[in-house]
Amino acid sequence: MSKPRSKKFWIIFWSASAVFLAVFYFSLQFKNNPAGTIGAAIDYVPWLSDKAEYKSIAYFGNYLLKSDNREKTFLILFQNNMELRPGGGYIGTFGILKIKNGKIIQLQTNDLSNFDGREPNTVTPPYPMEEALGIKSWKMRDSNWSPDFATNAKKAEYFYYLGQGQEKFDGVVAINTNVLASFLKVTGPVQLDGYPGTYDSENAILTLEYQVEKGYAQQGIAKGERKTVMNALADAIMKKVFTLNASQKIDLAKIILGDLNQKDIQLYFADSQLEKSARAANWAGAVDQSWSKDYLMMVDANLNSFKSDYYIRRSFDYTVDLSGDTPKADLKITYVHTAKLADWMTRDYRSYLRIYVPQGSWLSGSQGLSDIQYGDELGKKYFGSIVQIPIGATRTFELSYNLPKNISTSDYNLLIQKESGVENVPGKITVIGKNGAKNVYNLTLTGDWTLNKSN
To answer: Please, are residues 268 and 275 in contact by the beta-carbon 8 Å criterion?
Structure first.
């Protein structure tokens, strides 16, 4: 059930939308006339036309758009969730966005395959990155190894400075590939001069992936120019965005809101109050470290499986038994590899799976998993193992574990947090009470889910 949205919520939402629209456009097609384009974006945001309401806007929106002669600089991470990482997806490109007096004054984009070469080979990769990916040093492209976005944002900044970057950032924004389809759902399909085919919400991600990985060579485009198609695609989409009617703008706003809630867009601010506002709106991609009840988060990291996450479907079955002296949990995770054959973007799927559970939990058994790793971070305990799913196969993995004794029937509650970049995940929750009675909940995990708020 959707909860009512407050005025403050919508202020935060439209502010984030304005920044996101600007980031999306300028990250792919930076023009010499940023003031004109950002003016159109600002005009698109409904509440800015209401002067009385504008004066009452909280500092979050004002921070982004006010004329204070202060330059604000953001690190933008573009994450391809067809190659999943714990924080959303493989980071192939990053951008540096500068805003002053409500206008974008600069955007530089950088191919990480080039920038990472500037970083010294001095940082030991986390397990099992070195063994599985064949890398000797941790780099910015793999900096989002945590399911917590603030952790990843700080790590990305660390690698940026390690590569002799000079900017001081006011915030970090991560954007997943899925967002491209979101825009095309409203704008409709686009065709690009000089490039074959039509880009629409159903095929754009695959079509673009093919163009930058294979198609460019067949068309005689130099490898260094293979991503210029992004400029043309962004230009075509944004031209349509700025001609949308009022109803279509509302539709786009709802879709952007969905992307924020599903963690396809994640925000981090250096300013503690801005970061607090982003967390309150649940747009900070944060692992909830204050939660004291039952907890579950399933986190995958694609290990050299190309872009196979496009074809992976996940589901889970979680049972918690509170009838005994010690609360027990049983988790089954099922993967289906829907691809038919191996090709340039698909192979057998291999992932480092981590299951985050309440601190103090104790593993009692497993099926289908081997060499299980244990760790404590972000106020949680995790169990980790490499899992493999051949093309066309279905595999189910099971963990059984004891929960901390403070998790009881009288005040039982469960928070399940969704990994950024993962598509909707069907799940079944069974809670066995002290008297043996069962309560069953069926859900589709599209964002974070709390038991007592969802039934």
So the answer is: yes
Query: What CA–CA distance (Å, rounded) separates 415 from 226?
Result: 43
Can you tell me the distance from the alpha carbon of 65 to that of 59, in angstroms, rounded to the nearest whole number? 10
DSSP letter, residue 116? G
The helix/strand/coil state of 52 is helix
For every residue of 220-239, DSSP letters joined together read T--GGGTTHHHHHHHHHHHH
Please tell me the distance from the alpha carbon of residue 202 to that of residue 50, in angstroms, as a whole number. 36
Whether pLDDT at 401 is above 50: yes
Q: Give the angle subtended at the CA of 334 by the CAs of 325 and 451, to the nearest 5°.
A: 50
Which distant-in-sequence residues (6+ apart) come within 8 Å of 100 by Cβ?
Answer: 69, 70, 71, 72
User: How far is residue 59's CA from residue 192's CA, in Å, rounded to a whole number?
Assistant: 40
Question: Shortest CA distance to 241 belongs to which of 425, 455, 20?
Answer: 20
Do residues 375 and 415 touch, judged by C-beta distance below 8 A? no
Residue 428 pLDDT greater than 80, yes or no: yes
Question: Of the candidates 1, 2, 10, which has an alpha carbon nearest to the alpha carbon of residue 281?
Answer: 10
Q: Are 202 and 106 in contact (CB under 8 A)?
A: no
* DSSP assignment letter at 66: -
* H helix and E strand count, the chain: 13, 19
Domain architecture of the chain: domains with CATH: 7-280 (3.40.630), 294-453 (2.60.40)
pLDDT of residue 13: 41
Nearest CA among 423, 170, 152, 93 for reference residue 284: 152
pLDDT value of residue 60: 53
Please determine, for residue 39, whether its predicted confidence score (pLDDT) is greater than 50.
Answer: no
Q: Mention every residue, 6+ apart, whose C-beta is less than 8 A from residue 220.
A: none
Q: Helix, strand, coil % (nearest 5) of the chain?
A: 35, 30, 35
Measured distance CA(455)–CA(450) in Å, rounded: 9
Euclidean distance between CA atoms 222 and 208, whole angstroms:
16
Task: State both tokens at 9.
Answer: 């919520």
- The DSSP line for 7-31 is HHHHHHHHHHHHHHHHHHHHHH---
How far is the CA of 60 from the CAs of 7, 55, 64, in angstroms?
13, 13, 7
Residue-wise pLDDT tens digits, 259-278: 888 999 999 999 898 888 78
Has residue 56 got a pLDDT over 90?
Answer: no
